[in-house]
Amino acid sequence: MTTDLIIKKFKPQEHYVKALVYGKSGTGKTVFGGLANDVIIASAEDWLLSLNAFKKDIPYTQITSVDDMRSLFTYLRDEKHWYKSLVIDSLTEISDKIKLNIEKKNGGKQLSLPQWWEISRAINEIIMDFKTLPLNLLIITQEIVEKDEEKVLTISPALNGQMKTKIGYSMDVVWYLYTKEVKDENGVILFERHCKTSMSEKLITKDRTGLIGDRINITFQDWIDLAQGMVTEEKEEIVTEVKAPAPSDVVEDITHEFAELTNDILSKPDPKKLNANKMKLVQVMTALKKKYAIVNNSPEHIAMVALYEQALVILSPKEPE
């Protein structure tokens, strides 16, 4: 199905931060996320003890299954609510708990690798759904350290390969959080919370906004406030509108090109080369579908399938009367 192409100048009217933060246990990741305004927390545990000293009565929901995650998404998408930020704390623990609960239901039988990958795929899809909501999104994970003997090679989010790659790439900001011991002017030992987004050989970090960078002792709400610096009241300006060809024109082009590409096998069909000729038809179909960006069940696709079926009739050996 062809559509008009519109080229516009990007003018962000609003911006919701989509971010991932990871680090060791005890570095303050939960506090970092939980201090956001109008926040709801999706937690692996049935408590938020580390946040209680900083902020009271924070709304949260315990996540122990994929269905729990789907229910939360549906609620945030379809119901009226006042939440502006969602913190998933932590995706590492939630994934482990979902896996453990499924194994308990299966009598303690461990999940096979394909089963675990299927669950990971489902979790990843829901995370991508959360990302589409008009909310700020923070995903918290533990860290995993890969070493070569005693040398640290990489520190990355503690997620399996599929989730680590897809979720990490899809976020605006990936921040590594760690603590550093310092002394104040009186010699009292304090712990600074360092957040790093700048490029590093050992870390997975990034900042698409270009506004956050490396910071000390800030919170997710500070991130959100910083990201608002890119928001403008200017409306997007249309640079160019490209009219797509009418379906009938495209169908005509496809028909003409199909005839040219298959003329050698259709003009003199050889029953001995039936399988090879069928393979060529499939290759021609694939090439045309890619060239014209044909969508299944569109007028172009229906026309191309009809051409293919007609060609099969021509190629197929005729039964004796």
Could you explain the architecture of this structure?
It contains 10 helices and 12 strands. With 321 residues, it is α/β, with parallel strands linked by helices. The model has no long low-confidence stretch (mean pLDDT 83). Strands 2, 3, 4, 5, 6, 7, 8, 9, 10 and 11 form a 10-stranded mixed β-sheet that branches. A two-stranded antiparallel ribbon has the order 1-12. It starts with a strand and ends in a 6-residue tail after the last helix. The chain folds into 2 domains: 5-230, Rossmann fold (3-Layer(aba) Sandwich), CATH 3.40.50; 245-315, no CATH class.
For the record, give the distance between the C-alpha atoms at the N and C termini, rounded to a whole number.
43 Å
Shape type: elongated
Mind telling me the CATH class of the largest domain? Alpha Beta
Average predicted local confidence, pLDDT:
83
Number of E strands: 12
Residue fraction in strands = 15-25%
The CATH architecture assignment of the largest domain turns out to be 3-Layer(aba) Sandwich
CATH topology of the largest domain: Rossmann fold
**Which residues sit in consecutive blocks of at least 5 with pLDDT less than 50?**
none
* H/E element sequence: EEHEHEHEHHEEHEEEEHEHHH
Structural class: alpha/beta
Specify Rg, calculated over alpha carbons. Answer: 27 Å
| Count of discrete alpha- or pi-helical segments spanning 4 or more residues | 10
**Tally of separate domains:** 2
Q: What fraction, in percent, of the residue positions are helical?
A: 40-55%
Largest sheet: 10 strands, mixed
